[in-house]
Structure formats: structure tokens, C-alpha cells
Amino acid sequence: xxxxxxxxxxxxxxxxxxxxxxxxxxxxxxxxxxxxxxxxxxxxxxxxxxxxxxxxxxxxxxxxxxxxxxxxxxxxxxxxxxxxxxxxxxxxxxxxxxxxxxxxxxxxxxxxxxxxxxxxxxxxxxxxxxxxxxxxxxxxxxxxxxxxxxxxxxxxxxxxxxxxxxxxxxxxxxxxxxxxxxxxxxxxxxxxxxxxxxxxxxxxxxxxxxxxxxxxxxxxxxxxxxxxxxxxxxxxxxxxxxxxxxxxxxxxxxxxxxxxxxxxxxxxxxxxxxxxxxxxxxxxxxxxxxxxxxxxxxxxxxxxxxxxxxxxxxxxxxxxxxxxxxxxxxxxxxxxxxxxxxxxxxxxxxxxxxxxxxxxxxxxxxxxxxxxxxxxxxxxxxxxxxxxxxxxxxxxxxxxxxxxxxxxxxxxxxxxxxxxxxxxxxxxxxxxxxxxxxxxxxxxxxxxxxxxxxxxxxxxxxxxxxxxxxxxxxxxxxxxxxxxxxxxxxxxxxxxxxxxxxxxxxxxxxxxxxxxxxxxxxxxxxxxxxxxxxxxxxxxxxxxxxxxxxxxxxxxxxxxxxxxxxxxxxxxxxxxxxxxxxxxxxxxxxxxxxxxxxxxxxxxxxxxxxxxxxxxxxxxxxxxxxxxxxxxxxxxxxxxxxxxxxxxxxxxxxxxxxxxxxxxxxxxxxxxxxxxxxxxxxxxxxxxxxxxxxxxx
Length: 697
Ligand SMILES: [Zn+2]
Prior knowledge:
This protein is α+β, with helices and mostly antiparallel strands. It contains 20 helices and 26 strands. β7, α4 and β8 form a beta-alpha-beta unit. α3 (87-100) packs across α4, α10 (300-312) packs across α12 and α18 runs antiparallel to α19. The longest helix has 29 residues, at 163-191. The termini are far apart. The site of zinc ion (ZN) has 8 residues, from loops.
């Protein structure tokens, strides 16, 4: 008898349905030579620092025992806290343990989700449950339909085939623990504020911080452009000159416009061609999230949860994929699915080609597609309908039997000998696949002009402003995180060569992975570091404080370090380095942070810890203490609002400086402030009328 351990109850149910005629006994399914039971996702987590150092878990953090580098990482059951013990987890593990050790069970099957996280979730269950050696196999499911389950069960590979995937999974878990635990405690103790530091969350918050600071400090440049909007044959032809003039040269701009208007503008060339427009690629998870974010303002945690639900119900393939391609081995399966989709009335036919099937662009999962199982759309929730229909319609667009035919036109209008304007327009003649996917719309319709026509012109100087960079959206942030070393312009383009993008993913240059990114961004939102409104991210005061404090504490957790470790993890996956090697790299980085000067309240460079007294309140005479965002009067509850920031104009006000300010009413001249416009300046801080002010005199 084989025991199958599924990652989640829903997967166990689908596996049982694939085997057929199984009996459920409350804790597991039995029948047909199989037992099927389940975990609740992670039943185990890594031990806390105190469990390695002999301290008491939950006590106030200290620097004792930090940085903590366990000689051997230990896991423990997630049994909750003493206050809230999780009896369900314990019962679940006992059930798995009893079934593993049943004498009639001669083999175990790891049925974690088909990714590195799923691989180690079930491996850990087996590691701690099985008390005698038994062979372990792997059930790897690209989707959860009964057909796929039955086919995979007929040909189970040994679980050792996935050892390197597990190695990468464990290495990732250890490294993220080392960073999260050590740097969170270090930064929290040294700043006196709870700061959640992690390998991936910090560069994500930093990207949003940097962009928002660029926008905040942006000074627009005003200039004159020469624009002509004149009618020819009843149609307005808009031409914008390449000549531009600075704000001070208004007269020069007017003279230039007059000169150009004296010339004759004619159409000197017209090119027209019909073209079949290619459909976009299938969806990877983030491309689907981009689409849903842009079109429906659906946040990433929601689009992932809905996609996951559709996968668990068997309607979509495995969602956490980073590929927009299908495997060549899947052609027969796709033909069958196309048959089911055609039966719904969609015009589809099988198409082959490198833009759809490309094994070199698949790491472990193919693009997201519908499965054989077509849902009864009336029974889906509104969000499920939105997501399913986006995936289905993209699939139909890619395999559409009708071509999209467009007419592309290029007109050249020459303004005397001054300059040529090339106008481009696209008119869609036959909609084809664009009926199902509106990623590409018909472009501009050009005025009906022919070669030799004279075009009326009326150039005038128009005042314009350079525009600031744009806030990150779900789409642009995702594109940045997938390849943080590429210029955004290229990343935004759907078209063109995507080899570089896939190289970045396969080498581990990306920040986070398709499977983890949604959760980490969700954490940053819940920690109030960033916020998401519609599909636009912006930094919150807590996020500014995080980034500025880390920089003051010289904790550098930028994209270079994060992706350096990401590449090390990929090398573990490719068997080029060991788990221990990658952990040693992380330890070295963390040691550097800890080797920065120590935390000593008598050190003038010490920023102040939570609760440190700084002096007497100038308004009410009570004690001023270092608090979360700065120095604050302890008479706050009695209505005294005296406070000032621990970071003013980009400069940390140390505890010693705050003490001097409160004791004498002013500080020495302090250097290193930075104005909103990015200029650095020196100033004295003084207390005037119960407020802290800059004194420039
Ligand atoms: Zn006060």
C-alpha cells in the first residue's frame, strides 16, 4: 500500500478523486491500494534564536547571541504559542506519523505542490514522521484534474529526482531566516523601533521609496515646443517640431515658428502595407497579475488567491509559474484542451511555433492555461469569472484560427528643407484574435493624404513641462522585480526578444520569485511600509523611516546583495554549490553588518534606543523619550504634543544631540542635512516657542 501525503486538504481531495472509489475516514482516504492524507501547508518552521542559544522565546530581544548562525538548522512543529496552542497541527502530524509507520504501508508519495516550497513541506513531514526507511516517490502535478492525477500516479519518479529542488528550497529557507531574524533584531535594537528587515522586502520597499523621492524632488523644466495643428481637406494634421527652446527664449521660438510657416509642407512619401498582427504570449503568473491589475485594479494578493482557487478546483494549470511558454511535450494535451474550448464556440485551432512552445524558456512550469475541465461559468464568483475568462481568452487569442489583419501606414510630411515628420498609423481590417484580447488595439488613424499633397501648417510656440517619473504600478514594479538590472523602458515592452528576461530569471537575478513576491509585497503593505491604491504603489512614512534608518545604520540590503544571494540559490539548484556554501555567503554578509560600531548610549554617534530619556520637555517639563518615529514628550497622554523627528531633512539626530538641544536650547552647528530639492546644508537646531526649528544665522 502507498501512502500519499498531499500539501493541502483540497489537493488530497483531488488526488482521491483521480484514484476513484476511495473511502474517507475523517483523517484520510483509503482504497485502490492507496492511503491519501494531507498537511495544512507548513506544519514545521525553523526554531527561534532562543531555541539555539538557550534563552526564553518571547523575551525582550537583546544583542546576546547575535548574530545567530546555527551549526545545524532545526525545525519544530508549528504548535502555536503557549497562549494559543495549535492542537490541529499536532493532531495532523500525529495522523501522518501513524500512517507513515503502518506496517502495511510499503512506500510514501510526496504530493507537495509542484514547486520547491511544496517539495520541502512534505519532505519535512516525512523526515520527522517516518521511523524506518521506506522508499519515497514524487507525485508532480501540473494541474489537478482527475486525468492528470491518474496519469502521474501511473509513473511515479523517486523523490530523489527532486533533491536539488529541495536543496534550493532549504537553502532559501535558511538564508531568509538568517537575514530576517538577525537583521530585524539588529535594526530594531539599534533604532529602538520594530523594523522588519528581510532579504527581499527591503529592496522592494527601497525601489518604491527611491521612485517616490525622485517624484517629490522633481523640478520640472519649462520649454517651448513648436506645434502645428492646421486643417487640410477638413482634417486636422498635428505636427510637432524637433526644435525646442528654453523658457527664456520665447522670442526666438516665435521667430523660428514664423520662418517654418513660410515654407511649403508636402507629403513626400506614403507607404502602406497589410500585416498579420501576432497575438501576445500566454500568461505567466506575474503577467496575469499585471493584466488584472491594470485592467481591473485587482491587487496581487487577490489575483493570486483567485488563481490558486481555480487551480485547486481543477480549472487552471499550476499558477506559480514564471514562464509564458508551453513544453513541446504538451502538444497532444493542448490539442485536447483546444477541442474542449472549440466546443464552447471559440474559433481555435492548434498552432505550433517557438513563440508558443519553447522548452528553453521553462524552468519547471509551463504558462498558465485552462485545463480539460471547463467550469460552469454561472457557478463561479465574480472574481473567479474575471480571472478565468482572462486566462481562457488569452488562450483563445494565442490559438485563434482567424488572423488579425491590420493596415499599417507611414506618411512623410516634409516642411520645406527644415525637417521631415513621419506619421504612423494602424487600422485593423479584420479583428481576428483581438476580439478575445485587447492587449493590442488599432492605433491612430491617419488623415487621408497622398503623395504630393500640400499640407497646411501653422506652427506656434507651445509652453511645455518635462514630466516627473511615474509612480510604480503593479505592472511596472513586477517588471522591475523580474529584472532589476534592466532599463524600465525595455522592460515595459511586451514585444520583442525576451531572452534577456528569461536569462535574468534562470540565473536568479530577480528579486523574489513568482511564488514568493505576492506574499512579500503583501507583508510590506500590512507593515504599513507601502500602500496600494487602485494599481499604484506609494511609500508611507513607516517605509521612509525603514529605508532611512537602515541607511543610517549602514545596513545595505539593496538589489545587488539580494540578487547576489538569489544567484547563489540558483547555483544550489544547478548543483554547482552546496546548501552550506550558500548559507556561508549569507553569514559573511550578515557578519559585515554586525561588525559596524557597537550600540553604546554614551557613544555620540548612538541614534538612541526605544525609551531612552533625552531631557526635559520645554512645554510641560516632563521627560522627553526616544519613541517610534522620534523624540516625544512622555506627557503625551496628558495632552502635551511636543515632539521632533529622529531624522530631520535626511539626517539622524543622535541621542547626544537631542540631549544638548533640550538642555541648552540649541545644538552645535550640524552638517549633513539635505533639502527637499536635494541640496545639502548645515544648520543649528534650536527650540523657539516650544518648537524645534532650524537656525541658519
Ligand atoms: Zn511636554
